[in-house]
Amino acid sequence: MLSAGLANMLKELSYSSLNILKRGKIFLAFVLLSACGGGGGGGGGSSDPDPAAIATYTVTFSTEWSGVTFPTNYPGDRDRHFSSLVGATHNEQVIFWESGQLASEGIEKVAEDGDNSVLESEIDSAIDTGTADAVLMGDGIPDTATETELMFLVSKNYPLVSLVSMLAPSPDWFVGVSGVSLMQGGDWIDEFAIDLVAYDAGTDSGVVYYAANNDTDPQNVILPLDSLATDTDFADGVHRDDGRHVATFRFKREP
Ligand SMILES: [Ca+2]
Ligand SMILES: [Ca+2]
After folding, report:
1. Exposed, middle or buried: residue 59 (CB in 10 Å: 0-12, 13-18, 19+)?
2. How far is the CA of 168 from the centre of ligand 2 (A)?
3. In this predicted model, what pLDDT tens digit does every residue of 9-46 receive, in sequence order?
4. d(Cα 186, Cα 178) in Å, to the nearest integer?
5. Exposed, middle or buried by CB within 10 Å (0-12, 13-18, 19+), for 241?
6. Residue 119 C-alpha to ligand 1 middle, in angstroms?
7. What is the domain partition of the chain in residue ranges?
8. Is the bond leading into 218 cis (omega within 30 degrees of zero)?
9. How many CA atoms lie within 13 A of 214 on its CB side?
């Protein structure tokens, strides 16, 4: 609801309030803090004693994947899509996936089938042990669109985000982030973007988008997607010639 300008002004006011408090001008500080409290109610943490303990973010998931940008064996405009977003807010004591490590069964299911159920169970287990705060579930990018948005709450004790989506159709290829922090130096980050590398989950041995299922046994580690130039345009997870990324996450803090 608040314009960015007004939100910034309120933030400045709250810093001013703290400075004024230090100087002992309690009354004026009280008035300013009241103004801030009223303005910040949209953040969802209005009953929290510390308004900065919870933040609301929107992540915009966008793609430039097309027959023009990645033409080699392109699956076609009516087929190319990204599966429903799935992930978690969590702390540093849990890692749901990592390049160079074996994929969990949950990541395998997402990467091969766009099936989020096992990864959701893995996140639920982490929530039970106190290392994750919430499961994030969002839309994918259908063949008819180039972006989607997911809004979510995040708390100071669980400021990391892991979020993935299958690049589809594909044998076991996915995009996403693992443990990216929405805080820097104790403050919420206003806005940032991450260009997404395409990863091979190491769980299926297909080399083209429409490869038949071919379980990799023993499983390989997760790595940026590499392929022959005759199979796809990907090398080291990006376009082999121009370095283009197949998708982007843009995180933006909501006022
Ligand atoms: Ca593979
Ligand atoms: Ca497999």
Report:
1. buried
2. 15
3. 444 433 333 333 333 332 323 333 333 333 333 344 44
4. 20
5. exposed
6. 18
7. 4-43, 52-254
8. yes
9. 10
* Structure tokens that stand for 239 in this block: 């376009």
Cα–Cα nearest to 106, from 135, 115, 98: 115
Do 208 and 225 contact (CB within 8 A), yes or no?
no
* pTM, to two decimals: 0.81
State in Å: Cα 204 to ligand 2 middle: 5
CA 127 to chain centre: 18
Residues 81-91 have pLDDT tens digits of: 999 999 999 99
C-alpha 227 to ligand 1 mean position (Å): 10
Q: What contacts 39, CB < 8 A, 6 or more positions away?
A: 2, 6, 7, 10
| Domain spanning 52-254, CATH architecture | Sandwich (2.60)
169 cis-preceded (ω within 30 degrees of 0): yes
